[in-house]
Write a structure and sequence with these properties.
Elements lengths: L1 E6 H6 L7 E7 L14 E8 L20 H14 L5 E6 L5 H12 L5 H6 L4 H10 L4
Helix pairs in contact: 2-5, 3-5
Length: 140
């Protein structure tokens, strides 16, 4: 299984992928859903909304910040398991394609037994998001 990270603009403008894929779409809660270019190769889309933030003991987050939840992570795994036999790639995008989407990609890769190193070499994955996705991989 190939796992690809993209940013919002790349998804909305259209990107080249030549095999059936599923799309995990992550946006800021105050942004509209991404406009996905029609493609017969896109077999399913999961849309999630949470901020690129991590909880810390020393810093209180503003009340309007929505963190990723364990339910979001479980929804990702439910989606991946439901569609993995019908696709050869997973595309994960967020607004900038630098933190949330590589974190999800790394967590999914690790949960599928794939090498997740490239997501740490090329991006700055949100550790909180990666941890939630990784933890959810072992749940039914």
């Amino acid at each position: 299984m190939k796992i690809v990270v993209r940013c919002r603009d790349e998804v909305e403008e259209g990107f080249l992928i030549r095999e059936p894929y599923m799309l995990i779409s992550i946006r800021d809660p105050d942004k509209p859903k991404v406009r996905v270019k029609k493609s017969g190769l896109c077999k399913a889309v999961l849309s999630l909304a949470f901020h690129d933030a991590e909880p810390t003991e020393s810093l209180r987050l503003p009340p309007d910040i929505r963190l990723m939840t364990a339910k979001d992570a479980a929804d990702i795994w439910r989606f991946v398991r439901e569609h993995q036999d019908a696709v050869r790639a997973i595309v994960v995008h967020c607004e900038q394609g630098m933190s949330r989407s590589p974190a999800v990609a790394a967590g999914v890769a690790a949960g599928l037994g794939l090498d997740d190193r490239k997501f740490f070499e090329r991006y700055q994955p949100n550790e909180f998001v990666r941890s939630l996705v990784s933890e959810a991989s072992s749940q039914p």
